[in-house]
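Here comes an entry:

___
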Amino acid sequence: MSDRLTEDVIKFQGRFAALKAEVGKVLVGQDDMLHRLVLGMLAGGHVLLEGVPGLAKTLVIKTLADAVDATFSRIQFTPDMLPGDVVGTQIFNPREGSYTVRKGPVFGNLVLADEINRAPAKVQSALLEAMQERQVTLGDQTFRLADPFLVLATQNPIEQEGTYPLPEAQLDRFMLKIKVGYPTRDDEVKIIDRMAGAGGEPTASKMMTTDEIIAARELTRQVFVDDKVKRYAVDLVAATRDPKASNLANLAPYIDNGASPRASIALIKVAKAQALLSGRSYISPHDVKTIAHDVLRHRILVSYEAEAQGKTTDHVIAQILENVPVP
C-alpha cells in the first residue's frame, strides 16, 4: 500500500467529516443514519431507510442533498402513480406529428423515493430497474442516468393500509437497509430548540461536488482487502444459506432463504467505504462486522417459526456474527 493512497484516504476522510458536520447543523441525534447514508454514497449503492413517521428520514436526505453540489429530485410515492411519473414519458405533438421526451424525476444525482411502499408494483419496478441498469428507455431512446446516481428510499413499517411491500428480489437492489430509531430525550430537546426556535430552521451549505464524490468512490475501490477478510465476508453470507454447515444448526428452522452473492459483494464494498471514513487504506474484519446488519437484514427471509417466536433477521445476523470465527 502506497503512502500516496494513505494520504488520499486521510484527505477524503476529512472532506466527508466536514460534510457530515455541515449536515449536523440541521440534523440532531441521527449520526448513525447519516454515517450509513454516506457509506452508501461512497460505495455507490442505493439505501433504504425504514422507521416510523417523524424520525427525520426525509430531512436527512434533503439536507445531505443541500450539502452536495448535485441535482436533487424528490418523488412522493402514492397508490395512484404510474411508471411515467417516475421515469418520464413521451408526449405526442399533433401539429408536428412527432414525439418529444419528458424526463421524469429519476434523472437526478440524489433521488429521494419517499414512502416507496405506497406505490403499486409496476411503479416500484420502474424505479428499481433504473436503479439496477442506471438507464431509462423511453420509446426507442435509451438515456443514461446521472453519475453519481443514488436512490435514497424511505418506508414506514407500521402503516399497512394502502401500502405495497417491496418483494425480496426488489429489496435486494438496495445495498443498505437502515433501521431508524427514536432520538434520546436530550436529543429531542435539542431538536425542539433547533426546529422551533426563534432563529428559524437551519439550512446546510454546499460542502462537496459530484466530482469529489466520484473521485472518492474511485479511491474507495482501491482500499486493500486481505483474502482472509474476503473469506470472512463469504463465510457470513454462507451461514445465512446453510447454518448447519457453519455449526449454527439452531438457526436452520428460522431461515427460509439466505443471502445471495450480491450480499458478499456489498459487504466488501461497504466495508471499504467504512475503512476510508475511518482513515484507513485497508479493511479490517471489524469493518465487515460493523456494517453486516445493514447489508444483510433485508436479504434474509425468516420463517413463520421465527416470526412466531419473535425472531427477526437482526437476531439471526447477531447469532451469525457471534459464532462465525473472525480472522
About this structure: The CA atoms of residues 153 and 192 lie 26 Å apart. DSSP finds 13 helices and 13 strands in the chain.
